[in-house]
Structure prediction request, 653 residues.
Amino acid sequence: MGYIKFDKTRLVNLEYSLGKEILRTSRSGSYSSTTIVGCNTRKYHGLLVSPVDELEGERYVLLSSLDLSVVQGEKVFNIGIHKYDGDHYSPKGHKYLKDFDINDIPSMSFEVGRVKVTQERLLAKNSDQLFIRYTVDEAEDNVKIQFRPVLAFRRAHDLTFSNMNANTRVNYIENGIGIKLYERFPTLSLQFSKKPEFVPVPDWYRGIEYTEEQKRGYDYREDLFVPGFFELVLKSGESVVFSASTTEVNPAGLKTRFANERKTRVPRDNYRNCLVNAAQQFIVKRNENTNIMAGYHWFGSWGRDTFISLPGLTLSTGDIATCKEVLDTQVKKMRGGLFPNMGNDNNPAFNSVDAPLWFIWAVQQYKKAGGKATWKSYGNAIKKVIEAYHDGAAFNIGMKENNLIYAGSPGKALTWMDAITSAGPATPRTGYNVEINALWYNAVSFAIEIAAKKGDTDFINSYGSLPEKIKENYLNLFWDSEMNYLADYVDVDMNRNMYVRPNMLIAVSLPYSMLTKDMMKHVVDKAEQELLTPRGLRTLSPKNPDYKGVYRGDQEKRDTAYHQGTVWPWLIGPFSESYLKVYGKSGVKKIRDIIYRFEDVMDEHGISTVSEVYDGDPPHLPGGAISQAWSVSELLRIMDLIDQLTIYNNKSL
Prediction:
């Protein structure tokens, strides 16, 4: 029995099983994802979802599912499962499921009469290839098994429908077929380690529905194409490996390749290993670039998320080399002192005021972890950021006469609280933001520190006096001596917004902080009292009339609640650092308890990973993406930090 356990008696209960999703990714950018019973509940689900370089590198669902049927005499037992109109599931293969395990790779065990079959799935580590190994564990006679590939060939964000443009012809290749429904797509090679018979019976499965898309207010019904079925006869104890790949492979090596790939997997046999396993899944190395996916299933590589999550995903696992690769990739994308916040390389959006400042923080963490030649590698990029903010950049981002950074553009939300509704920014914060100016102070101070060590006198002469000016004006502008905490932002008319939000914690947590120890304590205590939950920090105090405690409904409703009370796990990072700054080693146990409380979510929503958000109200149900980079990374980073503090404190004793 593995570390992550499921109630076997409830696996056939769809209410229990459909809410539990699994995700595997490759370093090439492909992923495989579905529910633990194999029923796709999202348009983003699929057994092989891969980037297509010819189509701007976006991810496309190629193989949606592979339906298995066991033939016994005249009877055919279908083990697949799809949802259709009116809560109709067909076939109902989940009723044959006896066990599900995910200790190293997803494994499902089915029992059909006197036949027991195990299915094990994994993705190739560095290519766009899916492996599934089927083993007949028990059978009195030889078993005939049929495999029906269910194809989509459409962008992961879209849906597809039966049409006359689809090329339904197949090409016969060694131990399988090749098929390409539309031009510009790669040919999908479907092959087995043992030669099968392929029976062409082209058909469209019409009206398949995705319940999660329906809940989120999106279109949720589509048609998928089945070219026919493969048929194999296996004896008791025999295994066969299926491969779906964007290139044709040698089927003779499939069994060995499956076994070798499996050996490289980090077992999910404890909490930390689950987080490490999840961390690896955000890293994509493709076309000589190394990027971090912000989350699964719909996020791409976002600048802000990349820099915030980078230290936890790489440095906390000792992977300094990958950290540098990501930094180098991002520097190539830089324009005018800004980094793209979202969009692909052909259509980037630079609408983030904090991404460049988080970049400098990430370099700071890289240097602290032992990264070499920091100023030589990143000094020019750091100086471009400082100069852009000092002199003025796009979206009205720039330093004012008070030496603080002002940012704001009509209809834009430039901070991390960036949800936009039909009425405009859901959390308007145009003006001087508490965390942006804290990041500005930290960035300038760090740049001066390393420039001085490398003798960059021109930079020191230009900016050396700036930190003290920033600090004086920051405290005068943001600190409220009566309320004893920081304003969230100050608008163009210099009015303070005193909403209790977690952004003020960043001003405490950064390596260079402008706050006194007493100020820090007031901020931390306020956040603990009104924002801290078992799943992270609320984005707004429940005492505020604008608070929204549930993150549900269509996009408009969700975006309205996104930063108005919804809980974000990544905020545990700045809270924990701030708490430890204030309470020192006496606070280690509390922070450890907070971090390890997330062990409870390893068997829900995204299995062995951490969701994007949770409801502000108890019981803090998960929402958003099933696996989010900065949710995972900040837990790993703080876990690493408290381990270091524990070692240091023990040595001190």
Summary: The longest helix spans residues 629-652. The mean pLDDT is 95. The two ends are 40 Å apart (CA to CA).
